[in-house]
Each structure stands twice: as structure tokens, then as C-alpha cells.
Amino acid sequence: MVYFQKYYYKDHHQRQIRKLDETFGCDSKNIKEDLRLIKRVKSKLFHLLYLSFLSCSFIWLSQIFGFPFSFSCIHHGAENFSYEKLSVDPPIASSLSIGTLYCDRSHFRTDICFMKGDIRTNSSSSSIILYTQTNTKAAPLSDIPTKFEEYELEHETIKPYTRKWETSVMNTIDQIHLISKYKPISHHKCDVSHDVPAIFFSTGGYTGNVYHEFNDGIIPLYITSQQFNKEVIFVILEYHSWWYTKYQQVLAQLSNYRPIIFNSNSKTHCFQEAVVGLKIHDELTIDSSLSKANIIGFRNLLSRAFEAPKGLLVVNHYNKRPRMVLLSRRGSRGITNERALVKLAQKIGFDVLILKPNRKTELATIYKAISNSDVMFGVHGAAMTHFLFLNPNCTLVQVIPLGTEWPSETYYGQPAKNMGLKYIGYKIHPRESSLYYKYDKDDPILRDPNSVNKKGWEFTKKVYLDDQNVRLDLRRVQKLLLRVHDDYFTK
């Protein structure tokens, strides 16, 4: 069709030129020049249309035959591009071009977005705005807005919390808007300007449970912030003052600056780079193949955060009686014969410290007790998260109640081994569970816990987590503790 039009117009123009030559004589020379100019313009137009058609053909072919084809992997619409699949950390904002807003939504646990350029916060609208220079020459007339301040080039939304797959808790997390728009001519001021990047994240959700505080928050924050070498500002959504008090020593190891409370801060804070959301690898785990960070580095960070003040004597138990810290539970999954367990451990040769942590217990106190111990002993539950305070090559003994084998191994057993600890999972027998005296011995609750767990988390929580205590078989436990004690002196 293009070629037909081209030759049709060529023949038509030649006839018009001859006709004008005969009619107007010498005056036709000017008209001929005009027609030749029109001819050249139309010729260029046809060439442009041909090239456009050729370019589109490549795109269509890539979609039809599955060829990899992309103009830019950092564009906000590059939905199929995944840094998780590449087994590397997402790019830090400094590696992106100015004016970029990019979101990686490929991970099932979390979304994470990156911004670079003229970034400004607007807490009243729960927005972070990236302003770009206007370029009316490059835009079609029909696309040029009459009010630049109202025209959005891009608009992403994100809930910066690392339990993306869990709809119930994500419904409680504040949503934040990431908007790219033209720079306004006026009212474009900064109340506070920062020359270091920002990381935006939420401390909502399950914050209040120590497992989730570390797994969903502190460890992902460590992974995400390591690349900035403490030259980064944390901007916190759904801020809790008690959370900051509890973790301020850890935060001081990650950032040289006080955090900004996003929701209650009406000032416009300006940044040149920003990361919104946190990177997470697995349960209480840092995969060194995906990041420059690693779990031993995180353990060393905790050591720096809670190290004993100068002049304070720390007792060394090496080559003496090994020290065992017993995490005592109140309520469900408590050890009903705890006193007898303590006496047995002491008789075998352990110095036993009973630790009863609660929400008001300072993290430094818990760290000191556990980091100075050789063995940590406890029943499956959130408090087992404190195994992170043990030194490498120490021993973690986790008592596994009925129906909790999978979460015990997934949330604490495997992560402990990843950290270089010696891990022992003590699976109780039905007779050691309080459920033994509530149900018939042939009841699936005792005989086949997996069938009960398949009914859903609600059943697991109601039966095995909230309604079960443990009475340990001390003869079985004695064999275990003897093995741990002997191993201490042979390491």
C-alpha cells in the first residue's frame, strides 16, 4: 500500500508540473519549486511511516514468538523483570537514572520500589512525589496538560511490609502512593533537605511479637540498608515509640541519623534517592548468595549494639560448668515440670539460668543472658527467636509440642543451623502433652496431627498452640542433656 501511494503521487505530481508549465509559463517555475518541496516532504513522510511499520513489526514478532525484547529494564512497566530471578539484590537507587520510578513486585513476600531524582514527601496525602522537568517539545500537543501540578506521569501504590501474601495482615498496613509528575512552577519548596537516601518501611502488622519484629522488620531492614553503609535515613510508617525504644541500639548500627515518623510529620522532606519497602530472603535467614549481607554479619551487628560497657566484667564459663539458659513460658506450651528439669540439668553439670522475657524486658538484658550461655533450651514459640543472640557453635534445644513440627523446624530449626548453631529438636511423645489427658488415644489430634493441621491455621492455633502444655519425660531429656554436656567438653 505504501509503495502504491508513492508511485501514484509521483506520476500525479509530474502531470501537474507539465500542466502548470504550459498554462503559466515562467510563473510556473515558482510553483514547480513549491510542488517539488511538497514532494520531498511527502517522500520523507513515507519513509518515516515505513520505518515505524518496521519497528512495530519487531515488537509484534517478539510477542508472537516469545523473543526477549525490552526497551528498558528499569522502567516502571517492566513487569516481567525480576531481580529475585537474577539472584542479586535489587539495584540501589544510585544505579538508576534521574527521574526513575521503578517497582519490583516479583517476590511473593514483599514489594519494593526505587526512586531517584527530585523526591518530596507529602504525609497528608500519604504520598512520595518524584518531580521531573517538563518537556513539552517531546510530547504531542494533545498530551500536554493545562495544569502541570495535577498531571501524573506515573502512579504506583505500595504497602511497605514484608508479608505481602498474607491478605489479612496486609489489610491493616497503611498504603503509600508513589507519584511521578511534572515539576510545578511554584509552591515547590522543601522544609527539610537531606543529602542521603531514605528507606521507607512500616512497623505495623505483627509488630509486638518478637519473631515478627525480627523476621518481618529488623533483618529485612539490615539486608536493605547494608549497601548504604549507615548513610541512610529511615522513614517509618505506623510508628510505635516503644518499638523505637526497644530497637534503637540496633537502628544506631544501621543508620547515622534519627528516623523520621512519616504519618505525623507535616514537613516536606526532600531526598535525591529513596527505597520504599524492604528486601526479605526467608525465615530469620539471610541468603549470602542474594546479598552482600549475611547472617553472621547480622549477629556481629547485634554484638556491637549490645556489647558490655567498658569495665563491666563478663564471666567466662569455658572449661568450667557449661551454662544453659532456660526460656520459661507463661500460659500455653509451658513446661509443667520445669523445676525438676532445672534440678536434672544442674545434676548433670550445667549452670542453669531461668529467663522469662516479656514485652517490657530490655533487649540488652536478654542479649547478655543468652550470649553468655552455651546452651539455650525452650519450647517452640516466639521467644525462640532469641537464638539469634547465641554465639556460633553453641547449642539450641527446641522442644517440639504435638502438631508443631513444621513451624518449629521452618521458623527456628533451619535458621539456627544456617547461623552455625548446633540444633537439636526434641519431639515430644503424646504422653508428654497435656492433650493426652483431654482426648482419646486414637483421636487424630494425638495420632495424626498432620490431618488436623490440614484443616487450616485456625485449628492448629486453637488445638496445638493455645491449648497445649508439656510435661517432659525426664529420662528422655536426661539422655539428651548428657550428650550436649559431653559435646561441650569435646568441642
Automatic annotation (TrEMBL):
The terms under GO molecular function for this entry are:
glycosyltransferase activity; pentosyltransferase activity
Lineage top rank: taxon: Eukaryota
Q: How does it sit in the membrane?
A: Single-pass type II membrane protein
Q: Name one Pfam family in it.
A: Glyco_transf_61
Where does this polypeptide localize?
Golgi apparatus membrane
Q: Name one GO cellular component term.
A: Golgi membrane
Question: Transmembrane stretches, by residue range?
Answer: 45-65
- What are the residue boundaries of the Glycosyltransferase 61 catalytic domain, all occurrences included? 259-397
Q: Which terms are listed as keywords in the entry? A: Glycoprotein, Glycosyltransferase, Membrane, Transferase, Transmembrane, Transmembrane helix
- In the UniProt record, does the keyword Glycoprotein occur? yes
Q: What is this protein called?
A: Xylan glycosyltransferase MUCI21
**Gene encoding the protein:** LOC110800858
